[in-house]
Amino acid sequence: MEAVGNKISVGEKPPGVEGTGFFATSLEKVVGMARKNSIWPLPFATSCCGIEFMATMGAHYDLARFGSERLSFSPRQADLLMVMGTIAKKMGPVLRQVYEQMAEPRWVLSVGACASSGGIFDTYSVLQGIDRIIPVDVYVPGCPPRPEQIIDGVMKIQQLVETESLRRRDSPEYKAMLNKYGIQ
Amino acid sequence: MFDPADENVIAILREKYEDQVLLTEKHYDFLTITLKEDKIIEVIQHLRDHEGTKFQFLTTLCGIHHPEQGQIAVMYQLHNMYNNSRIRLKIYLPQEKPVAPTLTGVFAGANWMERETYDFFGVVFEGHPDLRRILNVDEMTIFPMRKEYPLEDQTREDKRDEMFGR
Amino acid sequence: MDARGTDINTVQPQEKQYSYLNLGPTHPATHGIFQNVLKMDGEIIVDSEPTIGYIHRAFEKLAERRPFNQITPITDRLNYCSAPINNIGWHMTVEKLIKADIPKRVQYLRVIIMELARITDHLICNAVVGVDTGALTGFVYLFQQRELAYEIYEEICGARLTTNIGRVGGFERDFSPKAWEKIHRFLDEFPKVLKEFENLLKRNRIFMDRTIGVGGITAERALQYSFTGPNLRAAGVDYDVRVAKPYSSYEDFEFTIPVGINGDVYDRFMVRQEEMWQSLSIMRQAIDKLPDGPYHAEIPDFYLPPKEEVYNNMEALIYQFKIVMGETDVPKGEVYHSVEAGNGELGFYLISDGGRTPFRLHFRRPCFIFYQAYPEMIRGSMLSDAILTMSSMNVIAGELDA
To answer: What is the per-residue pLDDT across B26-79, written as a single tens digit (0 to 9) for each?
Structure first.
């Protein structure tokens, strides 16, 4: 068994000035790095994609190694809303309420074809995509997507989290976007 | 066409309710009896309690819309667990005003099945303890499984019908 | 007169006040989205009102638009934990309609796949019952075994969860040697893990205290509510569609039907556990007795010919065209076929008027029918017992709402 020690890489450190006992960089980069490695998801699992999510959280395709160890079922304590499964029109107001209860900064990951666009269910009772009622950051297509695809979606969210400006949530463009959805 | 077990069931039914039976057929080895709608609950109760036909299990209940005849049918499927036989009973209701008596007094499991039939077809079951929509949103005004209503949500603008062959 | 000067005999007791708790559609413990408004007297539940329909996707209306082979993906999404059973049940319904003669090999292969699907369905249910009593380890162990089953499905049909397995008339290709290798690996590894999981919970004092006597239903009430499947068998009635109306050569296999006594959560857990052992035995019997033969029926009107023949043979080309464009003659008639799905008798009532799509397709969904009894089962119990009852009944939202 060869030495593993020199093969482990512990996260990229952001560019900055280093010296004995101190490391200076910009606050945004530190906050971004901290946030991206500890995203607390809220699994809003409605149907088949929820079972693939359970497989993603399982031991084989562990999602917890990306920092999502603690699943939060309360929106007040969650960062990432993962909508997995078909959202019917009856469920729309519930999803909206859950989104509004989340505190900033919050991201939305739409997992599966049904959540992204209605999927194979082009019917009168299915909401054709959750981006009709809430703003979505990353879409993961698939029916259901493989756990690797869900992890890829979470990694893209991590990229967004890392590079987001600290002032984005107060900016007028963001407020205008929320107004478009009718969310105050 | 009918084997002795079916003949037995039909005989027991005709003995008491000769005037209610409209048609007896056999589709794919399944005895199907079409009846008039006014005494259907007594007929089912009779079939449940009679010693010769102990149909004590309600398998399913659903509605069928026949637009060219202008009728909505309600199909009851009963199961006799003692000798493993099944029977299908159908009643036909006019589509303008489909009203039928409720089966919840005989089988408790008919409760939600009748609510589903009401939700999809608009069949009103008289005597039902709680007849309201079960699967669709409460504010819906149409009965979507009827043939005249389309499948898709007509207000969506992101899917082009000609690409999907509609 | 008491110390404060009030006459005890004239004091009126306070009006009983109940509190309403919303076990809302989004809840960590309800595995699926359905809502229950509970009327509670302190911690005891007095009454409850369920609301479903939060994932109503209009399957029955959708099926009226699609030709028969395209309805299989819809049936996948009914009880999505054991999708192959739904697929094969639908194919058998169409084969009953067109009166197709299915070769023995296809029937035995179908039995293997259906029993594997049944095992995966019961795995989830029992693991979740463990989670709801606090035993999270069992869940993680069993899900690892589900990955083995997913690999088997992937080798046969290409998909993990919503499989769309097989076709009307059989399978699209015979099982590859890799698939057999994976099936044998599953049959070797899985029993050890199942035994380990069983030992965790079967005689565990805490689990037994939490589950015995909780959420019970008598056999008479269960039959009144048209229960089927493990929930009915836990109440004491040995009704199993595989024995009552055998389909796909189930009469060739020897298996026992486990039956419970009280219909409570412990009985359902043990019935499902024992059914998993029986399913393993059926799978082994089917593999041992597997006959040789074609892997699909001879129904050129419904079974797509292989592509090599389509490009070389005129007749195959015509059949391919007719099947894909929907020009084949489908017999008219109404047919009902049922299979023993993970939750009970899954029935398909199909009325065909000769067109390329069904005139009416109704799914007899077991979850929808037995969930009606839920308010009656939890009356008088506490909130944690209500959660446990719901997860032990194995209510899958996709089958509830369709």
So the answer is: 888 889 999 988 888 999 999 999 888 889 999 999 999 999 999 999 999 999
Tokens of A22: 């101190």
* pLDDT score at B23: 86
Q: Which regions of chain C are under pLDDT 70?
A: 1-13, 29-30
Structure tokens at A8: 């482990």
What is residue A41's predicted lDDT score, i.e. its pLDDT?
93
Q: Per CB distance under 8 Å, which residues of C are interface residues toward B?
A: 52-53, 56, 58, 60-62, 64-65, 96-97, 221, 223-227, 237, 239, 244-245, 333-336, 338, 345, 347, 349, 351, 360, 362, 364, 368-369, 371-373, 401-402
Provide the mean pLDDT of chain B.
Answer: 89
What confidence category does residue B159 fall into, taking pLDDT thresholds of 50, 70 and 90? confident
Residue B161 counted as domain residue: no
pLDDT at C1: 55
Q: How high is the pLDDT of residue A3? A: 57
We report the CATH number of the domain holding residue B103 as 3.30.460.80
Domain C59-401, CATH number (from 3.40.1190.10, 1.10.260.40, 1.10.645.10, 2.40.50.430): 1.10.645.10
Give the domain ranges of chain C: 59-401
A128 vs B contacts (CB less than 8 Å): 153, 156, 158-159
Summary count for chain A: helices (H), strands (E):
6, 6
Total domains, chain B: 1
Stretch 66-125 of chain C: residues touching chain A, C-beta under 8 Å: 73-74, 76-77, 80-81, 124
Contact yes or no for C106/C297 (Cβ under 8 A) = yes
- Name the phi and psi angles at C61, rounded to 5: -75, -35
| Distance from the A128 Cα atom to the nearest Cα atom in chain C, whole angstroms | 11
| Beta bridge mates, B125 | B100
Residue from A134, A86, A85 nearest A107 by CA:
A134
Q: Give the pair of three-digit tokens for residue C377.
A: 């089962």
Q: Domain range holding B58?
A: 4-152
Rounded Cα distance, C240 and C261, in Å: 16
B83-142 pLDDT tens trace: 888 999 999 999 899 999 999 999 999 999 999 999 999 999 999 998 989 999 989 899
- Model-level ipTM above the cut of 0.90: yes
